[in-house]
Amino acid sequence: xxxxxxxxxxxxxxxxxxxxxxxxxxxxxxxxxxxxxxxxxxxxxxxxxxxxxxxxxxxxxxxxxxxxxxxxxxxxxxxxxxxxxxxxxxxxxxxxxxxxxxxxxxxxxxxxxxxxxxxxxxxxxxxxxxxxxxxxxxxxxxxxxxxxxxxxxxxxxxxxxxxxxxxxxxxx
Amino acid sequence: xxxxxxxxxxxxxxxxxxxxxxxxxxxxxxxxxxxxxxxxxxxxxxxxxxxxxxxxxxxxxxxxxxxxxxxxxxxxxxxxxxxxxxxxxxxxxxxxxxxxxxxxxxxxxxxxxxxxxxxxxxxxxxxxxxxxxxxxxxxxxxxxxxxxxxxxxxxxxxxxxxxxxxxxxxxxxxxxxxxxxxxxxxxxxxxxxxxxxxx
Lengths: 172, 199
What we know:
- The structure holds two protein chains of two kinds.
- By secondary structure, chain A is mainly alpha-helical.
- Chain A is about 70% helix and about 0% strand.
- Helix content of chain B is about 30%, strand content about 25%.
- Chain B is α+β, with helices and mostly antiparallel strands.
- The interface between A and B is large, with 72 and 58 residues.
């Protein structure tokens, strides 16, 4: 992803395509979207990934989280024919040196979050997946908080602390 | 916040969340943590093979000119997501009486979102709610029975809350308020005015 962002490397883009395109298609089709429409969405998402690569910041997100945000936007825009309101982009210091420790920390945090998710019982995991696939309404998500998701929540909280710390540095 | 990340919030509430994230690092961290979970769900989703031509089609499109989209930026107390809904213009205030003014930004069957302008120390009539109301402070502050809300704070009010918000002293209070239902005013006169002002 960094090669795509910094060097506009088309071979690197092709590997990202090989990794994400089939997953994106599977993800989009899970809520009943037809294969043909899913292909259009995947194509749009991959093109957005290329065009908006400069907005990717490995200090704050893994590529998957960033791609998730792009595909949900695209799905909402297609479904509602209106743009989802988007937060302001953070301005990065143009000459800022990459902070390897922070990037690794985000990777590890995501890995731990993934491990915590994997340990859930199948029915709990299904609720999480449905929520993030956009298959639950906001009402349903808020009434699902009774689930024993302590581990997940503490992981998110740890992730939050780290992100928050990083964001403070970015904003100051 | 999870519902915004998953894209299941009505438009009116999405605007409040996107605006709050633009104003607060804490809100942004919460959103990005939810997106990390979404990313894991995406990574671990089953794969479905894409058509053979898509990759070559895409690779040939990479050098195409990029269509330009209008980019809205923060203007004064209004963060970019609000400026986008305003399409870059200044708010068009319509008076509600007692110096209180509003500009309805959007309204559909799922809810409405508006800017509210309340002069310092002015009260907004006592009201309850039929649904959910999110109020984000953009300038100044207000207080009600539940506490004081300053710039960047969001009050979440539902059916159980009846309140009389009063703007703080100093600057006028400007809020972004989204509801998924009409507010119920307790006094007779404001109730009569309700259809007129579309609150």
